[in-house]
Specification:
heterodimer; A: about 120 residues; alpha+beta; Alpha-Beta Plaits; four-stranded antiparallel sheet; two-stranded antiparallel sheet; about 35% strand; B: about 425 residues; mainly alpha; elongated
């Protein structure tokens, strides 16, 4: 079953070089556990911060474009992993290993299977 | 008991075991529940006429499988292609002649069902409702009345939980060893929550609410049976039996609460006390201490004492010290302070309470304990202030009445 692991964290515009490097290393360690494990990583990406986001809405035939994320939230979506797991417990165990889970949140959402 | 009531009692008894096995065989939680529901309706009609079958569990199992097949066939008429999973079910389903088998010959899958119902991804109130419904065999209206919510709210809670189990892929299994400790804790917490809900029930509440204590005990017995090496499952069962032994003396006929010191110990249920202590002894032989066992040991010391004065307070204080290390909390600290005061004098207890002053400001039992110890050390004015504080924070009218009486006694100099 496929699960989206949506990674949310508090934005940190004052992140130091050292902090950025530490984060890269932490994700490197996570990836080196994830990739050889046999679980299928369908897709995974890091996203630019919400300062680079654009929100599009179409109302009454008019396209409305605004700067920023769709809603002001405390924690921002920073990236995701789309994994094919055996069950929810497996997805949860991977979500718990994502470095951002220590200070932010990872939402685990099952993907709809239209073929069923 | 009427025939109808007798049949309902058998349904409640068999529900958990049959449903657990059905889910295993059908691989579909919702289908299994619906099929069993159909079988129960059939059972109610047939058994009142034909009498209860020799093997009610097997009868329900067989009938539910037939009803599952009916449901799948009806569904396939409406869909062009039968859901792949359901096609597999229809192929594999063997219907045994109900006279040939016994429920004991089928593996007891109730443990899988318990852990599924108490999966951490389900909201706690959903875990409680699902456990009572699937394992307790309680109906939706019964659970609604027990937890004082409207029936449609409870129905929706159960429906959402079932959907989540299916949509989020919650596995139907006993968790693997690395997850087991935290999952057992969650399961025990749900059972204890059910018990405490029942413990608060008053005579005016629905019968089901009053029976929640027995239901929690019953579920814990099943758990202890299926997980004999779980010391904490034993511990919780012992704790609940010991609490339950005092239930009748907790409240006066008018509903007012009676404190431990004033309970009529001759009305404590000695059989429950004996059983609770025996189960605690079994737990201790497993050499795996835990908070439920410690709380049960404290409860056992109260149960064995003839009165407050002859209670082994030093042992109780020592046990609270242990408990405070295992599950440190303000609540445990306040209880520890009370025990220490009984064992070593009011000043010793006051020292512990002093450290809690800020944290416990909004917690009225702290102020009650504080008031009592201040009174015992002759700090009458401070004691009166503490009683006032407790009264202002206490939401329970019977407890507030008790506190107001204590304050009056204090002010009139009778203490």
């Amino acid at each position: 079953m496929k699960y989206m692991l949506l990674i949310y964290s508090l934005p940190n515009p004052n992140q130091t070089e050292a902090e950025i490097q530490a984060e890269i290393e932490a994700y490197g360690a996570f990836e080196s556990e994830l990739r050889p494990s046999g679980v299928q990583v369908v897709s995974s990406e890091a996203l630019h911060p919400t300062t680079a986001a654009t929100t599009v809405r179409v109302r009454d035939g008019k396209t409305l474009t605004t700067d920023g994320p769709f809603a002001e939230t405390h924690e921002h979506l920073g990236g995701y992993y789309l994994l094919d797991c055996k069950d929810l417990d497996e997805a949860i165990s991977w979500a718990a290993k994502i470095p951002t889970a220590k200070e932010g949140s990872v939402e685990v959402r099952p993907v709809v299977d239209f073929s069923q | 008991m009427t025939a109808h009531a007798q049949i309902e009692a058998i349904f409640r008894e068999e529900h958990g075991r049959v449903l657990a096995a059905l889910i295993s065989q059908l691989g579909d939680f919702a289908l299994a529940e619906d099929a069993l529901q159909d079988a129960l309706v059939n059972g109610l009609e047939r058994w009142e006429i034909d009498g209860v079958p020799r093997n009610p569990g097997a009868w329900l199992m067989t009938t539910a499988k037939r009803r599952a097949i009916d449901r799948l066939r009806r569904a396939s008429i409406h869909q062009r292609t039968l859901h792949q999973q359901h096609a597999v079910i229809l192929d594999l389903l063997e219907i045994d002649d109900e006279d040939e088998f016994d429920m004991d010959s089928i593996p007891d899958d109730r443990l899988k069902l318990m852990f599924t119902c108490c999966h951490p991804s389900l909201a706690l109130e959903a875990q409680v409702a699902l456990t009572l419904h699937t394992l307790g065999g309680l109906s939706t209206p019964e659970i609604a009345r027990a937890f004082l919510v409207p029936v449609p709210t409870m129905a929706q809670r159960l429906a959402r939980a079932r959907s989540k189990i299916r949509d989020a892929g919650i596995p139907y299994r006993v968790p693997p060893a690395d997850l087991l400790p935290e999952r057992i804790d969650a399961l025990l917490a749900v059972i204890y929550l059910i018990f405490n809900e029942g413990y608060c029930a008053t005579e005016g509440d629905s019968l089901t609410r009053q029976e929640l204590c027995s239901e929690a005990i019953r579920l814990c017995r099943i758990l202890v049976d299926l997980m004999p090496k779980s010391a904490e499952a034993h511990g919780l069962l012992a704790l609940m039996l010991l609490h339950d032994s005092r239930r009748k003396t907790r409240a006066m006929p008018n509903g007012a609460l009676v404190l431990l010191a004033e309970q009529d110990r001759s009305r404590w249920d000695q059989a429950k006390i004996r059983e609770g202590i025996a189960i605690l002894d079994d737990a201790l032989t497993l050499y795996s201490p835990g908070p439920y066992q410690v709380q049960a040991a404290i409860s056992a010391l109260h149960a064995e004492a003839a009165d407050i004065a002859t209670t082994d307070w030093k042992q109780i204080a020592a046990l609270y010290n242990t408990l405070a290390k295992m599950i440190p909390s303000m609540v445990v600290e306040v209880n520890r302070a009370v025990a220490v005061a009984m064992a070593f004098g009011a000043s010793a207890g006051l020292r512990i309470l002093l450290r809690l002053q800020d944290q416990a400001a909004g917690y009225y039992p702290y102020h009650v304990a504080h008031a009592d110890l201040l009174r015992r050390t002759n700090q009458i004015e401070a004691a009166a202030d503490a009683y006032q504080e407790a009264i202002s924070l206490c939401r329970n009218s019977t407890e507030r009445a008790y506190l107001e009486r204590q304050l009056d006694l204090l002010n009139s100099g009778s203490q």
